[in-house]
Design goal:
Helix 10 packs antiparallel against helix 13. The protein has 341 residues and is of the alpha/beta class. It is globular and about 75 Å long. The protein has an 8-stranded parallel sheet. Strands 7-6-9 form a 3-stranded mixed sheet, with no helix packed on it. It contains 13 helices and 11 strands. Strand 6 and strand 7 form a beta hairpin. Bound molecules: zinc ion. Zinc ion binds next to loops.
Length: 341
């Protein structure tokens, strides 16, 4: 199917919200990893979200160029080109963008979408995240409101974060004193400010002890009940229509019962990055260990062209990552839920 348009994307999110399932939002950094996501979604008959981070965009533009917006455009163009060969709907999103990188990442991407719209072409991305979690909430929301006003005209959905996801992603480390649990008061303030923007469509990354990266069991204390407290508070104050659409960050390595409780409390998008990185690299390592003397020229031998052709191990990695995508889809209760018939 072609990339979901705005109406389709909003409908996807609504169906997940109502049906208590979520879409995996998988970080990609290359054509191969994007193809792995498409394959995994297609094979599990689930719609889903492909996302690019600032670091992923920079990498995708080439290690000499390092232009985060250019690389993100390049990946998005590829996905637009191939998506209609897969029988599912896919949306394109950009991950964490702090305030000081907006001008380098999100704004050029929004401008690209605006150019495309002016020429009668579809949006480049469906949604972008602004991560103002390092700022005081009022400043975070000042910027979010400005973005949301522009996004409304462009049929773009905004993702924001209140509270701080722990751990480290793309070299951005949360401070030890960071606020790892969002409060109902914080989310009421989010609703008060953002719901006042006409035509606002936004997703909220509320934090309930989530940590980026993977840790041994017991290290992370998730409290998905916090999400329910936030929903109850907003419904009490603003009515049923104000119910939040939550995003689950730092979900790699989570217990299934915590994931399901989060889905029951309104999570519609779960970011999965670290587990995908491992699935991809594990397949490469497996090939290199098994075909050691084919990949390398050992003791004056010539190796084996078949073994060191990057396609050989990248195809294995694509398949392994696709399998991990299918597992994520299962965990998120999204298998077989595609709106594509
Ligand atoms: Zn995150």
């Amino acid at each position: 199917m072609p990339i979901a348009d705005h109406a389709r994307y909003c409908e996807m999110l609504q169906r997940a919200h109502k049906g208590r399932f979520a879409y995996p939002a998988i970080n990609v950094t290359s054509i191969t990893t994007a193809n792995a996501v498409l394959r995994g979604l297609a094979e599990s008959r689930s719609d889903g979200i492909i996302q690019v981070s600032t670091g992923g965009g920079s990498f995708a533009s080439g290690t000499l160029v390092k232009d985060m917006a250019l690389g993100a455009i390049s990946i998005a163009e590829h996905v637009h080109r191939v998506a209609d060969r897969y029988p599912v709907y896919v949306a394109l999103h950009t991950d964490h963008c702090p305030a000081d990188k907006l001008d380098e990442f999100v704004i050029p991407l929004v401008e690209e979408t605006e150019r495309r719209r002016a020429a009668g072409r579809p949006n480049l991305f469906n949604s972008h995240m602004f991560d103002g979690s390092a700022l005081p909430l009022s400043q975070n929301l000042d910027i979010a409101v400005k973005l949301l006003e522009r996004f409304g005209k462009d049929d773009l959905v905004l993702e924001i974060e209140a509270g701080v996801v722990g751990g480290e992603e793309d070299g951005v480390k949360a401070s030890a004193a960071a606020k790892l649990y969002t409060t109902p008061e914080d989310t009421l303030e989010v609703a008060r400010r953002l719901n006042a923007v006409e035509g606002a469509r936004y997703l909220l990354a509320a934090t309930f002890g989530n940590v980026h990266g993977v840790y041994k069991p017991g290290h992370v204390k998730l409290k998905p009940s916090i999400l329910k407290d936030c929903q109850d508070a907003v419904v009490r104050k603003y009515g049923e229509a104000a119910r939040f659409y939550f995003v689950f960050h730092g979900g790699s390595g989570s217990e299934l019962r915590d994931i399901h409780e989060a889905l029951d409390n309104g999570v519609v998008k779960m970011n999965v990055d670290t587990d995908m990185q491992y699935a991809f690299s594990r397949a490469v390592a497996d090939h290199f260990f098994r075909a050691y003397d084919g990949v390398l020229k050992v003791d004056g031998e010539v190796g084996s062209k078949k073994a060191y052709d990057p396609r050989t191990y990248l195809a294995l990695a694509e398949a392994a990552m696709a399998e991990r995508v299918k597992k994520a889809v299962e965990e998120l209760r999204a298998a077989g839920t595609t709106a594509c018939r």
